[in-house]
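Sanity check. The docking grid for flavin-adenine dinucleotide depends on where the pocket ends up, so I'm generating a full predicted complex first rather than guessing from homology. Inputs follow.
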Amino acid sequence: MKEVSRRAFLKGALASTAAVAAAGTLGVSGLKAVAEGKAIYTPGTYSAIEKGAMSNVKVTMTFSETAITDVVVDTAGETAGIGLEEGERLAALLKELQDSYIEGPITLDAKTGATLTRNAAEKAAYKCVQQARGEIPVEVIDSSADEDKAADWLGEAPEVAESEIAETLTTDFLVVGAGNGGMAGAAYASSKGYQVLVIEKSTTHARTRHWYGAIDSEDAQALGEKPVDRAALRRELKRYASGKTNMNAFNTWINESAAMHHFVKSCYAKYAPDMQVEVTAGDEAIWPHAEESGFFFPVCEHYWGHGIDRNDMFQQIIEESGNKILFGTPLVKFEQDDAGRVTGVIAQREDGAYIRVNANKGVLLAAGGYPCNPQMMEQLDPLGTAVTTSNVAWPSDTGDGIKAAKWIGAAMQAEAAPMLFDRGIIAPGIDAGYKVTSTGDKIFPATEGQFNLGSQPFLKVNRDGKRFTDESGTYDMMPYAAYNQPGHVYASIFDAGMPDDVQRFHTLGCSAGTRKNPQGQLDRFEQQIEKGNAFKADTIEELADKMGFQGEAKETFLATVARYNELYDNQEDVDFGKQAYRLSEIRKAPFYGFWMGACILTTLQGILVNEKAQALDEAGKPIDGLFVCGDNSGGFFVNNYPCLMPGIAMGRTMTFAIKAVKVAMGEEA
Ligand SMILES: Cc1cc2nc3c(=O)[nH]c(=O)nc-3n(C[C@H](O)[C@H](O)[C@H](O)COP(=O)(O)OP(=O)(O)OC[C@H]3O[C@@H](n4cnc5c(N)ncnc54)[C@H](O)[C@@H]3O)c2cc1C
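Predicted complex below; grid placement will be based on this.
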């Protein structure tokens, strides 16, 4: 669909506007023209798009000869709670400006958290004005383009001429990405008195992710926890990834995460002495009847409560030691010497100029995964993309680091490993997978973030009303099972017994939130009812109608519920073998239901590394000078993320970040 249906009109408009444009930039004379009521715009509607935080922001403006008469700002692809809701407010502000456009590009004085969305709207609005004044060609927006799938995601390293490099900086150790890995590495380096520089694409460090996995930490031991069975842990990690992993890398996390925890603890001791660590231990950490399910759940999860934010604390440590974080400074590409050693990077400053950063002792690549790059998602992980409805990933994680490392010959994990949680609540009838917005962006269809109740092992059915799997497992299992079902989505059904059921289910990790506060989740459920995403009814028939089951599907749904009650009564799931304690009856009103798919948190398919966090080339040899941690690194989680080991992503990320510093700075060989 061509967005600009008035194309022919606009061609004519452009020609006639030439007369206006010929007068040059309107400036003061333009203001005079307005004052005299003379025409400055060619009447019509014009659109332009600019890149926002997550997607393109589209501005459409309608002009009379002398005024802006209507403004629409489409922020549909922006992040819920940050930029998504800003459209109407920005449109009103842009319309108010009127004559000030004539003086040149505009800046809205808007107090909003969505800086990138606002900046995109400002730029796009000015382009509309320029079109209406005939200063630039009319923009034709083709929202049907699906070039993403066709074009190779990797592309080529950009050419940067020496003459374009405005500045050269030199440091001992360079960290690319002020995220959860980069901040830990840079804080550790700073605490040791090393010279370190951090470059970060965004205007802040990434949001702190609090739960991290550490094995046999001093705090677990103080609680009287038995040492983790390390052999069993290694076997489970290997089994979970179907053996496609590097067990040496497992050992770095298993053997060194306690020291990582000790470092974090020492920082809190100095900056927030009252903060206490919580370790998921004792009865809380026991997966009921784990021996039957075959799941292995080591005690590893650590959490530092609500007090000082960890990355804020790390930033303080970095800056107090005299080191710096350069925000708004994305990595463009790596630089190497003739022997192939990575000597530093080319990055881009906020003003658009290129800078060279030389790193004497090494570079740590910590620029996150690719969850917010639809082209990479579709090409590298078609399965994860197909089953996902909701995206809560960090917006600037677009795979830049992976591309840059690949451009210099680094090897990448062959298969995808998305972090998918079974919490992407959506309205009935909506399929999982990307939808294309009016601005041509690809976004996942859900309007909500994570809906915790999704992870409870209640009855699940497909659009035909049919049960298709054992609902008990790790967070990613249900969405993957739904790949084989219509629309790649499924419905979850429960009754008034939910608060008791979830105690018996005793799910672990962050899904325990529902068990700890069932009423809170039911309150959230009510909010979702108002949004049309969740349904409550006095009878199961009424629920079926509300959920959209019709005709044969409704009959099947009612029969499935009856069958499920029978399995519960017999305390045996002869259909799929779900453990009896995870069955529940559906008999007591009110009855509840909602549709869902996966919620994506990040991707874990990255550059292959060895146990020292060194990047490997295609021959399996370390690339001198280049270290990788976190979601940028691969070879650890393959196909699936072991959600049963909560915090393992962060535990691995921070352990490897510190490892990289130790190796690069010569603390370890
Ligand atoms: C909502 C949510 C909750 C989570 N909770 C947990 C949890 O409790 N426990 C757990 O184990 N895991 C959790 N995770 C996963 C965890 O956040 C990641 O595995 C972890 O953050 C990886 O760290 P990282 O440093 O590799 O990436 P990030 O923390 O994402 O940081 C990457 C940084 O690189 C920057 N960057 C990107 N491109 C460039 C560039 N070109 N140049 C410079 N900088 C760049 C980004 O802006 C970002 O600041 C969660 C994820 C989400 C989304």
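Relevant for the grid: The longest helix spans residues 247-271.
Also worth noting: The pocket of flavin-adenine dinucleotide is lined by residues 176-182, 199-202, 206, 209-212, 330-331, 366-368, 392-394, 396-397, 400, 419, 601-602, 630-632, 647, 649-650, 653 (CB under 6 Å).
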